[in-house]
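Give me structure tokens for this 83-residue protein.
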Amino acid sequence: MKIRAHAESHVVELDDGSCWQIFPGDLAATLSWKPETDLDLEPSGDRMSSHVLVNAADRSRVRVIAAGEVWPDGEVKNALKRG
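Here you go.
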């Protein structure tokens, strides 16, 4: 999938029309994303995020939840502390 819009650093809209919130600790991995960046959406196995976006070029992964959903507070704080 390609990026349709990434106007806000923490939200990305894909060309299939889906919108995803990027985990705050993973924002740095998105800095190199361009509209032509090819992303794969995969289910996540962790409790914090429902899915991951995988950059097909370098296989970097960012945790995401559907736009409009809320990150679980305790999980986010723990993950940010761990780095």
